[in-house]
Amino acid sequence: LSARGEPSMDPTTAADSPAQQDSLFSMTDVFLISLITGLFTYWFFFRKKKEEVPELPKMQTVAAPVRDSSFIEKMKKTGRNIVVFYGSQTGTAEEFANRLAKDAHRYGLRGMAADPEEYDLSDLSRLSEIDKSLAVFCMATYGEGDPTDNAQDFYDWLQEADADLSGLRFAVFGLGNKTYEHFNAMGKYVDKRLEELGAQRIFELGLGDDDGNLEEDFITWREQFWPAVCEHFGVEATGEESSIRQYELVVHTDVNMNKVYTGEMGRLKSYENQKPPFDAKNPFLAQVMENRKLNEGGERHLMHLELDISNSKIRYESGDHVAVYPANDSSLVNQIGEILGTDLDTVMSLNNLDEESNKKHPFPCPTSYRTALTYYLDITNPPRTNVLYELAQYASDSGEQERLRKMASSAAEGKALYLSWVVEARRNILAILQDMPSLRPPIDHLCELLPRLQARYYSIASSSKVHPNSIHICAVTVEYETKTGRLNKGVATSWLRSKVPAQPGSSSQVPGQQESSSLVPMYVRKSQFRLPFKPSTPVIMIGPGTGIAPFMGFIQERAWLKQQGKEVGETVLYYGCRHEREDYLYREELARFQKEGVLTQLNVAFSRDQAEKVYVQHLLKKNKENVWKLVNEGMAHIYVCGDARNMARDVQNTFYEIVSEFGNMSQPQAVDYVKKLMTKGRYSLDVWS
Q1: What is the distance between the alpha carbons of residues 670 and 658, in angstroms, rounded to a whole number?
Q2: Residue 142 counted as domain residue
Q3: Are residues 303 and 332 both part of a single domain?
Q4: What is the pLDDT of residues 26-54, one digit of tens each?
Q5: Domain co-membership, 105 together with 222
Q6: How far apart are CA 103 and CA 225, in angstroms?
C-alpha cells in the first residue's frame, strides 16, 4: 500500500502540472483522501497484528518440536544399560567410545556411544533406574587443559552441579599428551568430580598418552576394565570378540545426482549455496589469494597462504586458529580402488543398522566411494588395532590372517608387533593392503572401519584490524621417508601447497568446484591466546619456526594500535630458525616493523649456522636481566608458540631459572611463580606436538 501511495506524493510529480491539479482536487478533497488513506492503513496493519498474535503459539509448536534429550529414555526404549560419553576434538575419543559400546554385547550387556552435547547430563542421577547400568566417559583434553568443544556444556554443568549421583556407577578413560602442561586435565577432572558428587567408580581412571602409544594405553586399560565390569555385575563373557557390522550397504543405481554428497561436511549443496554462520559443520569456501614459498633454500617447503574471507561475515582475533578441511591425494585413493577392484564412482549409502541411533551414517550419504575416500575418511594414518581385527577375516592367507589378529590382540607379543610393523613403520591402509596381498576386504566394510578425516588447525598469522577480509597461514610441508622406503606426505600441508591462487576479480564459488585448485573449506576456532587488554602492556613473544605465525598477527596489531595514536608497550620477539640464509621467515616484514619502532627487540637464534646449536632459550638466558625486568616491573605478558615436546618445555625451564636467580627464589618457588603467571593469563601457550 505504501509503495502504491509513493508516486502520488513524489515532489517532482506534484510540480508537473499545477493547473491540472487545481481542476481535479480542492484542498478539502486532498485532506479527506489523506485522512481516509491514513485510517485505512492504520486499520489494515492493526487488523493484521490482531490476527497474527493468536496464530504464533500454534506455529511454534508445529515448527519447533521439543527435542527429546533424555539418554535415559532412549536407553530404556532400546534396551541399553551402558552409555559411553565422549569428549572428542579429533574423533579419537569418539572412536574409543564406539569400540567400548560395541564390546558390551560380549558380556550380555548392550551399549551406546553418546555425544554429551546432544543430551541433558543432569539425567545421570537417574541412570540407576536401569538394571546393571554404567556410564563410561572417554574424555580428551584440548589446548591448555580445556574440554573439547562438544564437552564444554558437560564441563560447565559438572562445575556448577550439586546433584546427588550416589546411584551412578562410572569409569573414565582420558586422552591426553604428556608434552602438554595440563596432561589429561579433563579426564582427571571428570573422574574426581563424579566421585565428589557421590558416584561409584567401578574401575580406575585410564590415562592415555598420545605422545607415547595412545592405542596401546587404551587396549591395556580396556582389557582390565571389562573383567572389573564382569565382577561388579556378576556377568561373564559370552565368547570371543566377534565382527558385527554397524552399517548396511545400499548401492544406488538410479539416483538423482543432486541428492548425492560431493564433499560437504553437513548440509547438502552447502558449497554451492553458502550461508553463514560458518563453523565445523558448515565451513566457508575461501579462495586462496596468495600462496608463496617463504624459505630461500633447504629441503623443506615453508609457505605463506592468504585466504579471502570477504562477504563471509567471519570475524577473527589475533591468536585465533583457522581450521581447514583437506582432501586426500587422488593417487592414494585411486590405488586403493585398484587394489580392491572397485568402481570408485559407485554411489552408495552406509545406513546404521540401529535405527534408534542418532548417527545414521558414518559420513554424509549417499555419496561415491571416491568422495568418501577423498574427503571423509582418514587413509594416511596407521589404522588402529580394531580395524586390523575386523579386516583379518578377509585375508585368504592363514599366515596373514593370524598376523593381523595377533597385532590386534592384547598379548605383549602382539602389541610389540603392532608397534613395530604398523606404528613405527607408519604403514597406512594402502601400505597394509600392498604388503598383505591376500587381504582384500569389501570396500564398504573398509569405509565403515576407517576413521573420519579431521580438520587441521593453524595459528592465524594476521591481524583482523589490518586484514579484515583475509586470514593468513604459515605452514611447513610435512614429507618423510618411512622405514619401508615409502614417501609419506602430510595430508593438509601437501594439499595446501598445491593450491593455486585465484586471479583477482574471479568469481568465488562455482557449483561443483569444491575440489577447485584455489578453494579451501575453512572456519575459525576461537582461542585464549590473546594480546593484553591494555596496549601499553609489554609483550614477550617466543616462537621459532612456524611458531612465529600468531606473532605476525600480534605485531601487525600493535603497529595498527600505534598508528591510531595509542601508547604501545615494548614488543619483544624471540624467533629461531635453522639457517639465516635459508629459512628466516618474514625477514623483510620483521625488519620493517623494527625500523618503524613497533618491534622494540628482535632476537633471532640460527640453530645451525655455527658449531654449537643456538636456540631461543639460549637468547632468553643471554638477555635474562632484561627479561626479568619486563616481567617483574613491566608486568609483561609472555607468549610461547611452537613445538611442545622440546622447545616449550626448555623455554619454561629457562623462565624458572631466570625467576629463581633474579627473584631470589628457590626452584619450587620459581615454578609456583610461573604457574601463577599462567593462571593470571600472563604466560600463554599455543603449542603442538
Answers
A1: 9
A2: yes
A3: no
A4: 555 545 556 555 655 544 444 433 333 33
A5: yes
A6: 11
CATH of the domain at 640: 3.40.50.80
Q: Which residue has the cell 613473544?
A: 541
Sign of CA dihedral 184, 187, 192, 193: positive
Residue 688 falls in the annotated catalytic set:
yes
**Per-residue pLDDT at 62:** 33
The answer on 670 and 547 residing in a single domain is yes
157 is annotated as an active-site residue: no
What average pLDDT does this structure show over 17-31?
A: 43
- Which of 133, 349, 459, 470 is labelled catalytic? 459
pTM: 0.86
Q: Could you report the per-residue pLDDT of 127-136, keeping only the tens digit for each?
A: 999 999 999 9
Which domain CATH number covers 318?
2.40.30.10
* Cα–Cα distance list, 356 to 55, 253, 443, 485 (Å): 34, 27, 25, 46
Specify whether the CB–CB gap between 639 and 648 falls below 8 A: no
For the cut 60, the answer to whether the pLDDT of residue 531 exceeds it is yes
Domains in the chain, number = 4
The reported pLDDT for the residue numbered 31 is: 53
609 is catalytic: no
- Least confident interval from 53-62, 232-241, 475-484: 53-62
Is the pLDDT score of 253 beyond 80? Answer: yes
pLDDT at residue 15, rounded to an integer = 33
161 and 229 housed in the same domain? yes
Same domain, 282 and 152: no
Measure the CA–CA gap between 136 and 82, rounded to whole angstroms. Answer: 8
Query: Within its chain, how far is the Cα of 193 from the centroid?
Result: 26
The reported pLDDT for the residue numbered 510 is 46
Can you tell me the distance from the alpha carbon of 420 to that of 43, in angstroms, rounded to the nearest whole number?
82
Q: How many CB atoms lie within 10 A of CB 271?
A: 25
Range of lowest pLDDT (181-185, 315-319, 362-366): 181-185
Query: Does residue 53 fall inside a structural domain?
Result: no
Query: Please, which residues bridge with residue 439 across strands?
Result: 395
Structure confidence by residue, pLDDT tens digits, 397-409: 999 999 999 999 9
**Is 445 part of a structural domain of the chain?**
yes
Judge if 343 and 446 occupy the same domain. yes
Which of 210, 641, 660, 684 is flagged as catalytic?
641
459 assigned to active site: yes
The C-alpha atoms of residue 445 and residue 463 are separated, in whole angstroms, by 45
- Quote the radius of gyration of the chain (alpha carbons, Å): 31
Specify if 283 maps to a domain.
Answer: yes
The boundaries of the domain holding residue 487 are 276-326+455-502+517-527
Same domain membership, residue 466 and residue 610 = no
